[in-house]
User: Fold this.
Amino acid sequence: MGAVEMMSFGERFRVTLFGSSHGPEVGAIVEGIPAGRPLSVERVQAELDRRRPVGRSLASKRHEEDRLVLDGGIVDGRSVGGPIRAHVANTDVRREPYDRLRDTPRPGHADFPARVRFGPAADLSGGGIFSGRMTVGLVIAGSLARQLLEPIGIEITAFTRSIGHVDLLEVPEVPLAELRRRCSENEVWCPDPGTAERMGQLIEETRRDGDSIGGVIEVRAVGLPIGLGEPFFGSLESTLAALAFSIPAVKAIEFGAGFDAARRKGSEHNDPYGFVNGRVTPMTNHAGGILGGLSTGAPIVYRVAVKPTSSIARPQRTVNLATGEETMLVVTGRHDPCIVPRAVVVVEATTAVALAELGLRGGFLS
Amino acid sequence: MGAVEMMSFGERFRVTLFGSSHGPEVGAIVEGIPAGRPLSVERVQAELDRRRPVGRSLASKRHEEDRLVLDGGIVDGRSVGGPIRAHVANTDVRREPYDRLRDTPRPGHADFPARVRFGPAADLSGGGIFSGRMTVGLVIAGSLARQLLEPIGIEITAFTRSIGHVDLLEVPEVPLAELRRRCSENEVWCPDPGTAERMGQLIEETRRDGDSIGGVIEVRAVGLPIGLGEPFFGSLESTLAALAFSIPAVKAIEFGAGFDAARRKGSEHNDPYGFVNGRVTPMTNHAGGILGGLSTGAPIVYRVAVKPTSSIARPQRTVNLATGEETMLVVTGRHDPCIVPRAVVVVEATTAVALAELGLRGGFLS
Amino acid sequence: MGAVEMMSFGERFRVTLFGSSHGPEVGAIVEGIPAGRPLSVERVQAELDRRRPVGRSLASKRHEEDRLVLDGGIVDGRSVGGPIRAHVANTDVRREPYDRLRDTPRPGHADFPARVRFGPAADLSGGGIFSGRMTVGLVIAGSLARQLLEPIGIEITAFTRSIGHVDLLEVPEVPLAELRRRCSENEVWCPDPGTAERMGQLIEETRRDGDSIGGVIEVRAVGLPIGLGEPFFGSLESTLAALAFSIPAVKAIEFGAGFDAARRKGSEHNDPYGFVNGRVTPMTNHAGGILGGLSTGAPIVYRVAVKPTSSIARPQRTVNLATGEETMLVVTGRHDPCIVPRAVVVVEATTAVALAELGLRGGFLS
Amino acid sequence: MGAVEMMSFGERFRVTLFGSSHGPEVGAIVEGIPAGRPLSVERVQAELDRRRPVGRSLASKRHEEDRLVLDGGIVDGRSVGGPIRAHVANTDVRREPYDRLRDTPRPGHADFPARVRFGPAADLSGGGIFSGRMTVGLVIAGSLARQLLEPIGIEITAFTRSIGHVDLLEVPEVPLAELRRRCSENEVWCPDPGTAERMGQLIEETRRDGDSIGGVIEVRAVGLPIGLGEPFFGSLESTLAALAFSIPAVKAIEFGAGFDAARRKGSEHNDPYGFVNGRVTPMTNHAGGILGGLSTGAPIVYRVAVKPTSSIARPQRTVNLATGEETMLVVTGRHDPCIVPRAVVVVEATTAVALAELGLRGGFLS
Assistant:
């Protein structure tokens, strides 16, 4: 059977994920950052901290986890031009609950296809590779990418747009820094306090029900130079989407007007150009800041749908691969009822990686 | 300024697009097809014919265009293991209407960012690279990919799910071959005759108004072996999406339940497993046939949103880059009021390319 | 059986060869040249003309061949940032002599392993892919690469260092332009007229004998910025060698002192540093201008060994794959008795491609 | 300045080196080994042990170093299809001797171009990346590659062919296993005891003189299926050479007759075919087992020249980059007088990596 060799992304800003959820560590190697760029390890740690589980009781328990260990590539706060390798230890591995899943694949989880593909010996380890814990490496890479982008003025912020049926109806029209600040004041990472409160309540209710819930994350990126992206296979949409879908649980993505664009006339959808402060500017942004795969100068806007976590405490119908019989499964262990808030920082990370890759490719970052 | 080097896709099934809309030809080089596989050039031609403009009056005019020229890689109806190069000539190039666009970028089109990125000398040629005509190369590659997939039982069909507000409410539950047959009986490539009729009417009205309209294409792929795809960066979703977004005008994609998954509970969304004819089978398919980036054995189901064509006859506000003044633009020339029906075959093509790439990577096609 | 997908080289300066010796054309796609660089198609043609067969009688016959056809990527003498595709037609294909080789593989030629790998249906076409004629694409790419390198002061010249036992004992210490001029005055492309005369005589004698002869080509490249190259897999030696060995008939390569370095003490071999015109300069050049895979500022110097052409008129022992018997083979058709002089421009081309790739990678050409 | 992103090799058997000579560890990530293959970590350790310094006094001192730490990819002695990461700790780092080199680049070493390329802050770390210690990662990858190759009958052995002017005149015609056994009985890894003795004496003399000495390593690989390799850029010679030149100190390579082929007539050089045990077989092996970039079934034979170590105790002329004056340098610290014997296992490793890459590409190992 074939090997899993695609744990690497990128031609210029190359990310290789390593480790697994049940091994000693998870992390990433990042290649392609030019020498001499200022890089703060503390900022990477801060982004990792944003991946912590949501909910007051849990949050404190795991507070000291995920300490970043850097090995090479940064000296005296600057890139040296070589690969940057960083990881965090897996300190809290509890194998037992997973061992029972060996023969009864969880509905909605990679268990079953991974076992068929990689065999019974490999499936636990496979499960480890498919784990959301691997996104630690994405966050590491994304935080470095972001630090490469900021000096040319690119800023990225994502936030929770909806949890289940609780929607953020309107996105506050404030600068990105302020949007970010508002998000940081609540655990669900939503810029409106009232909506955030209702989202949090829904998550807690869902937890009590032994169930899980999905949601939508919206991303904004501003300050891109005009023309960033490549036509066709390296389009901004292609690159952002490929990376977004590498996050387990993401099942949809739309740029700008997105699916709504399919309902519209060209005369309604096209963004007219005008001059703003002497610069050519799209006067609306139905395109989400992207035309022909290239940035237009307007903010990049896109949304991703995150499905509900597959591991739930409620009994679910599945099969026993050993006995060949149908059976009911109750997944134990600690599982997030909603990973949307924790995924916000991961989506920011994949966005930064995409922009770093295309920025380097287009000569905007060299 | 950086070069556009990303006209290539794939590590195992490698596609390189060449040509431009205003040059002598457009086509593709396809590398990676093992030697000895049966490949019909006629079938590639047939797929190219499906890209023809929709609407009776236009269809006849361009009937003899896009004759495939093959150069190398196929001998006596079989792959020889080397690169396959194929192209069609651009026989009907009318440069003049485009020259006027040099200084007045079309709203909704790549004109503006391409010009900023590649400079005034390059933008026409750039426009040529950004043209939908480049999808000829995708269709060539896709048709070859499909012929590589069929012997292991993989079938792909796409169809028009909506045009503007005209929706296909229910997808007929028939085998893919029958679905395909029904689509082929109308110009909009929709399996329901009544809906197809209304879609066609909407397109004609839109044309008369000098406007354009968007729509949604749905894709089905069946017969995939379980486990096709790679975790993370090479997930089925990542690969299908990256290729779908390389099609100009695609602005959104969703797999299975897609954005609706973000509204649901895990207990509603997870697809339970059961045995069907002795085989483990997901009993519902909210996952769109994909878990952890791998195929589950259930049909792959996804939808893409196609925005309305940007080139419309109605006056639009834009700027004159030469004079620095705002101006109104009326795009002349022949433009499709709706490219959704023509894009159906292109989406099938990118689907086939994605599955061929991942099939080769996973050892399913060697 | 596996596919031949490796007709592409490079990450930044990407070359894809296409065509075959018996198909309609051979050529290359070149990706990665930044937009706006001056590129002369005439210069590419001039390099192609240097590939012409050596010997007065032959030269005239094929004088009109190999006219370059450019399709895209260059407008008004400048790169537009997109792929450059160029080819020459195969106007003088004589299939018949080759058909007889189908079952009796030529000693010293790719016939036998190609047939085993790609099967009987493919071997002619395979022969076509393995042909020295494919180096047309290398020369096209190399000439474009050279034009990218010259503006930063990089010059490349190769010459014939030996044919059989006829050696150029000493390389004249003159500027590269003068070296080049002297080479251009004789058909064997050797900078010393007396040696060139003896080389030419040896080639003519060899031809009369129905035999062939090998030789050595030496390459000089000057004007490289210090530090061009990458450590380990992207070292200057790795990249130059990988490309040199892609030329059929090259069997050895040595940099600087080369094999002689294996005989020496460190105290004899190390190149001491001194100041020349205020610049740090290696005072000798046993390293061939490369340390740790990076350029030192001294001229790049390397030599490649070219084996004698495998197709000779003398009877050779081989096997008949159809009958399973041993047999004698006399290769008819027009074959060069010595391809060394024609290969000089090809080695210059691969050198230029290597330096363009590494120059772009290191940020020296952006 | 550009980034060093090329610490990775391969498309199918992908090797990424990490660490540096002065950081906490060095190692490799290996991707592309199909799931379910037997892999012994002990064998990797045994190959690492062969990299130990030569000479009785030194050998014992460092005996316990370089213990392999495996993290992921192998479970219960079999590959699981995911990346294999392994490293050894740098336990004996002595920074001080190197710090003095910061401003006085060692002749023959990467110091100078690395400093120019990556700047003063980076050069120590750069020195670390350029260190021969990084070949630990090559040996790890090579040992895994070898274990992937053996089940299809491929065996690789390298040995010391010469040290300075001490040559192994004739290679014993014995099976590879026996050749290997004889090599393992002496420290210089030469199959003839008398020659080995003289080589060892020369190395000891050289050490006493505070000097260093070069040598030649010869490689044999047998059991390759016919047709392994790709035409042009992925030829066996290109791939083997690119990897061989990634080993610091390798300055030349020749396949089969090598440079001697340049002296010969085609009638002398071509290897005639005959039948041996009913199989088509080249009756001589001037081609070194490779035609058209593909394996012929005859043993692969090639030689690499290793230059004398650059770090020697003798005073050498260099420059002081801080003061701008010429100066004399005496390199202190522990340095091998001859790295040829230690490089034997590294050349075997790069050979195995090349064959694994091409074997996977050609479908011979799947």
About this structure: The two ends of chain C are 41 Å apart (CA to CA). The interface with chain A takes residues 11, 34, 363, 366 of chain C (CB under 8 Å).
